[in-house]
Amino acid sequence: MNDVITKSLYCSLLFCDRCAWLSRNKPEKYVEKKKEDVLQNGKEVGEYAKELFGNYVNIEFNKNINVMIERTQECVERNTPVITEASFRYENMFCSVDILKNYPDGVEVYEVKSSTEVQDIYLDDIAFQTHIIRSLGYNVKSANIVYLNSNYVRNGDLELDKLFIIEDVTDEIIPREDKVSINVRRILSSLRSPKEVTNDIDSYCFKPYECPFLEYCSKDLPKPNIFDVKIMKITEKLKYYKAGKISFEDLINEDINEKYLQQIDFELNDKEDYINVNNVKKFLKTIKYPLYFLDFETYQQAIPLYDGVSPYMQIPFQYSLHYIEKEGKELKHKEFLAKEGTDPRRKLAESLVNDIPLKGTVLAYNMSFEKTVIKNLAKIYPDLSKKLMKIHDNIIDLMVPFYNRDYYTKDMRGSYSIKYVLPALFPGDPSLNYHNLEQIHNGGEAMNAFSNLVNYSEEERLTIRKNLLEYCKLDTFAMVKIWQKLNEKCGKNINISI
Ligand code: SF4
Predict the structure, then answer these.
(1) How far is CA 124 from CA 105, 108, 143, 229, in A?
(2) Nearest atom in ligand 1 to 22's CA
(3) Shortest-distance Cα residue to atom 2 of ligand 1
(4) CA proximity to 361, closest of 312, 412, 293
(5) Which residues of 373-412 are buried (b: 16+ CB within 10 A; e: fewer)?
(6) Whole-angstrom Cα distance, residue 330 to residue 497?
(7) What is d(CA 491, CA 498) in angstroms, rounded to the nearest whole number?
(8) Which residues pair with 97 in a beta bridge?
(9) How many angstroms is it from 110 CA to the middle of ligand 1?
(10) What's the CATH architecture for 278-489?
(11) In the sheet that 57-58 helps form, which strands lie side by side, from edge to edge?
């Protein structure tokens, strides 16, 4: 069979033979996680990285890889100094090198990544490429990874030499390069195996990324099982799994962390809700009127478009604010959503300091996110910094009673994330169900919707903007309801009139 192993196939099938077999024989079991943004970022970063190398000749994509290989060959023979997507094949292996520097005495290989650090799998990726090129008789002078510098802060024109880091990994990849042939033979034999290959679950199912076949491979495990224990590290889960401690029944008598045990115990024994009223009361006492419930939506740019922005920095474009000015007063709402295609930060910061006074409490859920966003705004706008930092200092985290397990129910499934806490506290309440919203149901969708807003018609934009506002508003309304529920559990009923 004429199988061709590409660099992405090599990296995804490298660690598990079963993965190779399933990808060919049971592709319908592949459950893909959304990768659209990563791909988008990858393309954009790749284009900017090429500019680092001056003039270049690009080998256009062609379904027929032989065409790409021939064009590459022509460029090499013509002594083209920089070739992008330079394509090579050796035996069953094929790769397109992101950037190839071509010298009379050899080549330099550059693999571009849109991340801000070198991950282990990148070394396998580039080792695969250099193995092919060396096997074809080229002298590989160096192998390099080009990635984004997270410390770079844009100030004026984009400085590509500061935005990117080029790391020489020539020596590091030698041991991996030596194993490429063996690995490829193994992958090919698994792909072609008439019988299902059956690797057991192990660290390769979770690292470098969660395997898309995990649902299929864990289908025969008891439910719930060790992999459902929420906040436990994967290495610890695997330790129990390998020791045969898999079901919650197996785990209940193990000497494990109290928090994990609480989840197991509550679910296994169908336990009643737990609340430490004294601790929750103490927490509620720290909250002072006027009361503000704040939530930001942010998006990220791999390549910073604005001054003061680093790669992947959270850029706020929207907030929702529910508030109650005095005890017993009605619940009010304010919101901000930036105009698409503009730097949203200044107007958002101005609006925020107008909407939130310097006294009282600002409640956020998982406050480190909101605090970081506000701190970054304060850094770039010194004239607003004092007010912004006051808001920052007045933030209290509504997550605390759940993080501390002062309030826990079995439906929280070991998590303190609002995604679990909210439905656990208000089961079946349609007004708090994100699935009932139009189009935008989570932060990721909000981020994508805002980033792409400029590409829509005026009419579509209005609809998306309305849906973004509805989504963010539900986030803060959910916080109001959680705060109200905490009070109710401590014997204090709060009527919320809107
Ligand atoms: S889930 Fe694990 S065992 Fe199953 S195919 Fe993926 S890596 Fe292999």
Answers:
(1) 25, 17, 12, 32
(2) 5
(3) 205
(4) 293
(5) bbebbbebbeebbebbebbbebbbbbbbbbeebbbbbbeb
(6) 5
(7) 22
(8) 86
(9) 30
(10) 2-Layer Sandwich (3.30)
(11) 57-58, 82-90, 93-103, 106-112, 140-148, 164-168
Q: For the chain, how many residues are written? A: 498
Structure tokens at 304: 């910073």
Report the nearest atom of ligand 1 relative to the CA of 218: 1
DSSP state of 292: E
SS3 assignment, position 83: strand
CB atoms within 10 A of CB 338: 21
Averaged pLDDT, groups of 10, the chain, 498 residues long: 87 92 94 62 89 96 97 97 98 97 97 96 97 98 98 96 98 97 95 93 93 95 96 96 97 94 96 97 97 97 94 97 95 97 96 97 98 96 98 98 97 95 96 92 94 94 97 97 97 83
DSSP designation for 434: G
CA distance 207 to 16: 11
- The rounded distance, in Å, linking the Cα atoms of 183 and 421 is 45
Backbone φ and ψ for 280, nearest 5 degrees, come out as: -65, -40
Cα distance between residue 182 and residue 7, in whole Å = 15
Q: Which residue has the tokens 């190839």?
A: 100
CATH 3.90.180.10 holds for 7-185: no
Residue list, ligand 1 pocket, CB within 6 Å: 16, 18-19, 22, 199, 201, 204-205, 211, 213-214, 217
Question: What is the amino acid identity at position 100?
Answer: L
Which residue lies with its CA nearest to atom 7 of ligand 1?
205
DSSP for 210-263, written as a single string: --TTHHHHTTTS-SSBGGG-SSS-HHHHHHHHHTT--BHHHHTTS---HHHHHH
305 CB contacts (<8 Å, ≥6 apart)?
Answer: 154, 343
Q: What is the pLDDT of residue 40?
A: 60
Predicted model pTM: 0.90
What confidence score (pLDDT) does residue 35 get?
52
For residue 430, is the peptide bond before it cis, meaning its omega torsion is within 30 degrees of 0?
A: no
Per-residue tokens: 324: 């109650």
Domain boundaries, the chain: 7-185, 221-271, 278-489
Q: What is the pLDDT of residue 464?
A: 97
Please check whether residue 160 is in contact with residue 210, taking contact to mean a CB–CB distance below 8 angstroms: no
- All residues at 6 or more sequence positions from 316 whose CB lies less than 8 Å from its CB, including other chains: 296, 297, 298, 344, 345, 348, 373, 377
C-alpha distances in Å from residue 356, one per residue of 89, 290, 364, 389: 62, 9, 13, 12
Q: How far apart are CA 366 and CA 395, in angstroms?
A: 10
Q: How far apart are CA 321 and CA 361, in angstroms?
A: 12
pLDDT at position 189 is 94
| Secondary structure letter of residue 5 according to DSSP | B
Pocket test for ligand 1, best of 19, 21, 28, 210 (most atoms within 8 A of CB): 19
How far apart CA 300 and CA 74 sit, in angstroms, is: 40
The single-letter DSSP state of residue 27 is: G
